[in-house]
Structure formats: C-alpha cells, structure tokens
UniProtKB/TrEMBL annotation:
<keyword id="KW-0436">Ligase</keyword>
<protein>
    <recommendedName>
        <fullName>UDP-N-acetylmuramoyl-tripeptide--D-alanyl-D-alanine ligase</fullName>
        <ecNumber>6.3.2.10</ecNumber>
    </recommendedName>
</protein>
<feature type="binding site">
    <location>
        <begin position="97"/>
        <end position="103"/>
    </location>
    <ligand>
        <name>ATP</name>
    </ligand>
</feature>
<comment type="similarity">
    <text>Belongs to the MurCDEF family. MurF subfamily.</text>
</comment>
<feature type="domain" description="Mur ligase C-terminal">
    <location>
        <begin position="299"/>
        <end position="376"/>
    </location>
</feature>
<keyword id="KW-0573">Peptidoglycan synthesis</keyword>
<dbReference type="InterPro" id="IPR004101">
    <property type="entry name" value="Mur_ligase_C"/>
</dbReference>
<keyword id="KW-0133">Cell shape</keyword>
<keyword id="KW-0547">Nucleotide-binding</keyword>
<keyword id="KW-0132">Cell division</keyword>
<keyword id="KW-0131">Cell cycle</keyword>
<comment type="function">
    <text>Involved in cell wall formation. Catalyzes the final step in the synthesis of UDP-N-acetylmuramoyl-pentapeptide, the precursor of murein.</text>
</comment>
<dbReference type="InterPro" id="IPR000713">
    <property type="entry name" value="Mur_ligase_N"/>
</dbReference>
<feature type="domain" description="Mur ligase N-terminal catalytic">
    <location>
        <begin position="16"/>
        <end position="83"/>
    </location>
</feature>
<keyword id="KW-0067">ATP-binding</keyword>
<dbReference type="InterPro" id="IPR051046">
    <property type="entry name" value="MurCDEF_CellWall_CoF430Synth"/>
</dbReference>
<dbReference type="Pfam" id="PF01225">
    <property type="entry name" value="Mur_ligase"/>
</dbReference>
C-alpha cells in the first residue's frame, strides 16, 4: 500500500494509536519498535481492542486483511504525516530551542486560538514520533498548527523540519542543554539553527527574539523576519515591568499580569504576543489569553504547602535554566529561602564543571540553605549539604523540621524531585 492509498484510509479512520493501552474505536494502530519492545507483537491485540487496521513491518504478523504490511512502520508513519500536512493546507508554525519550548508552545496556542482553529503538540511529544503524531492530528478545519520540535543531537531539527515543512519558525534560545549529544554549546547553536536554515532556504517567515545576540546576528541579512525587542526600536516593542515573582509585561499600552514565575518566562510570553500581533489577534485578546495560562506539569508552578511557598520547577534542568531559576529566586523578597537542586543530565564531559558552576553561583548569590541531590552534585566542592541520592535526602528530611520558607525545587526529569513535596 502506497502513501496515497494509506492516506485515503486515514481520512476514513483519522485516529492514530501506537499503544494498545490507548486504543480508540476504529483507530489505525502503528506497530512501532523500540529497543525493548516490538509493536508487531501487539497488532492482533490492537484489532481486538477496536482498531480498524494495524500497520506492521514483519510478515509473520500480517494475519488478516486488517493488518497492512509495510517496509518500516516508523518511516511509514512519518511519510503519512508529511503527506497529510501538505494535503491539509494548514499553516504550520514550528519552534525549538534549549529552554521554554513547551511553555512557549502553550502560550502561542492560547493566543492564536482566540482567532483561529488551532492544534498544537500535546505535552512534549516533540521527537521523530511525536512530530508526525501532531501533524496527523490536523483536522479539516485546522487553520494553524503549532509544532514543537526537540533534539539532543545535530541533524535532528533538520530532519523534523523536513517532516513538518513549517511556514513559520521560532527558536526560544540557545542554552547549555544536551551538551553530550550536541558536542558542546557551539554544537547546540548549530543544531537548533537547523530550523533557521530550513526556513531561509524555503523563503519562509521567521519570528525573532531581537534581544538575543546570536539570533540577531544569524538573521542580520534575512528579510522575512518579524521580531520583538525591549531595546531596539526597529522591532516590535514589548517591556518587562516586573518578575517578583510573577511576570508582568507591557505592550501597546496594555499591562499583562501573568501567572508565570521568573523573568526567564518573559521571552516565552513575548513570542506569543509577537505571533498574536502578526496574525492580527486583537491586543486585548492576547492579554486575556496570557493571563489565563497557568503552568502545570512541574514547570515553574507556584504552590503552598505546610507554610512553605514553593516554586516547583522539577520538569527538567540544564545549566542555563538552572542559573535563570537561581537569579529569579534571588530577586524574590523573602526572609528565608530553601533550595533543592538535583543533577542535570546529558552534559557529558562538562558535567563536573557545570555542576560546580551552579554550586558556586548559588553561593555567590548568598543562598545558605541549599541541598544538592545526585551523583554529580555530590562531587562538587562546596559547604552546602550534599546527598548522593534522593533516598539519602529522604532519610534526612524525615528527621528534619525545615523552617517555613520560599523554596525552589529544580532538577532534571530523571531526578523526580517533585517527590520532596510528600516529605514536607
């Protein structure tokens, strides 16, 4: 079955599943493979659970007319997604970057949905499987699709851009994330810039943070760009009024009071404002959308528990986002501050250096009650308390009555530091 025939089938049954635990009636099941599983083995089960067809790539599992044999299930899923993206005529906005992708995507979607029929990447399903699934969620009436693209090595953004074929693009920033896969900061810049390369080569529109020196330099001679700035009057003006603790913004004589913690979220809001402006969303509707947004999923959530005011930012961490979180906490007025900082992953040979830098920076900012958690932080030279594992920290907290404080909890996803909440 070629992609045109498969797409006709997809139009009849426009729901996709890759997990037999999440089968919806009449969906098409794609039997993907991983290092520890073979989806072909579950094709028959998917059909019994209500799938209309199952796409397999091993002949032994082509057991009925409802199992369709292809050369490679993943490549077929990707090819179908790009075919559907072009069939739909929906305009696609792609974004990538080291930090803030998911929050920015959510903000952009809220703003643009004030005027348009939109779809956006669910959660952070932003890889070689997630991007195709997002494209396949485009409906007949979808006008704009916001597609988040993640990467941990060079060439990945170029590949995802080829799948999504965006009409517009935005890069949040270039930070110290996935240094191991990218081969250092210069590798990060090169890898993330693959989105710019695609857009420039195809004469597409680029949204620009003109206060980011790297972005500004890379796009200095490119004509089809639309940017925001606090300082350069050539670009659309957006002003940060405050971030203590919530981000307050001014644009076009409107003041926006967000529910987002930290100045590092300012540019995420700016991207949404800029795109709202470009797509002619009324300014007051942009304001309403931004003020409606509440962060979740452990991303810069502000909560209170047993007398503690907690900034829970335990979804992920890298040196750039960690330093931004420390800077933000230093600006918040509080007589007592407590920090729980967990290991940052995927830093490769720079891991020791980067963890030491974070500990040194926390000390430089004057923090005293700092708890460092994880094997990397355990190696740093510091006067702060260190715990080689979460279990070691847990044993300590069970017997310790922490003073009421403003608390930051931040670490990479694998550290799962949100578990601290259960111990307070």
């Amino acid at each position: 079955m070629n992609v045109t025939e498969l797409h006709k089938l997809f139009l009849q049954f426009p729901e996709i599943s890759t997990d037999t635990r999440k089968i919806t009636p009449n969906c098409i099941f794609f039997a993907l493979k991983g290092s520890n599983f073979n989806g072909n083995k579950f094709a028959e089960e998917a059909l019994k659970e209500g799938a209309s067809y199952a796409i397999v790539d091993e002949v032994d599992y082509q057991t009925s007319e409802k199992t369709i044999l292809v050369d490679n299930v993943l490549e077929t899923l990707q090819e179908l997604a790009t075919f559907h993206r072009n069939y739909s005529k929906t305009r696609v906005i792609s974004l990538t970057g080291s930090n803030g992708k998911t929050t920015t995507k959510e903000l952009i979607n809220l703003v643009l949905s004030k005027k348009y029929k939109t779809i956006a990447t669910k959660g952070n399903l932003n890889n070689h499987i997630g991007v195709p699934l997002t494209l396949l969620s485009i409906k007949e009436d979808t006008e704009l699709a916001i597609v988040e693209m993640g990467a941990n090595h060079q060439g990945e953004i170029a590949f995802l851009s080829g799948l999504a074929q965006p009409d517009f693009g935005y890069i949040t920033n270039f930070g110290k994330a996935h240094l191991e896969g990218f081969g250092g900061v210069e590798g990060v810049i090169k890898g993330k810039s693959e989105l710019f390369t695609y857009l420039i080569e195809n004469d597409k529109r680029i949204f620009l943070n003109a206060d980011d020196a790297i972005q500004k330099e890379k796009l200095a001679t490119y004509i089809k760009k639309f940017g925001f700035s606090q300082t350069d009057s050539v670009y659309y003006q957006i002003e940060l009024l405050s971030a203590s603790p919530f981000v307050q913004i001014k644009f076009e004589d409107l003041v926006v009071n967000t529910n987002l913690i930290g100045a590092y979220n300012f540019h995420n809001c700016c991207a949404a404002i800029l795109m709202g402006k470009y797509f002619n969303v009324p300014p007051n509707e942009i304001k309403v959308a931004l003020e409606f947004y509440n962060p979740d999923n452990n991303r810069s959530q502000l909560m209170k528990k047993n007398g503690h005011e907690i900034i829970l930012d335990a979804y992920n961490a890298n040196p750039t986002s960690m330093m931004a979180a420390l800077e933000n906490l230093s600006l918040i007025e509080s007589s007592q501050k407590t920090l729980f900082l967990g290991d940052m992953f995927e830093l490769g040979e720079t891991a020791n250096e980067e963890h030491q830098s974070i500990a040194d920076y926390a000390q430089k900012l004057g923090f005293k009650d700092v708890y460092l958690v994880g094997e990397n932080f355990f190696k740093v030279n510091t006067t702060f308390q260190k715990f080689k594992s979460f279990e070691k920290l847990k044993s300590y907290l069970v017997d310790t009555n922490l003073p009421k404080s403003t608390m930051l909890i931040k670490g990479s996803r694998g550290m799962a530091l949100e578990r601290i909440l259960e111990l307070l």
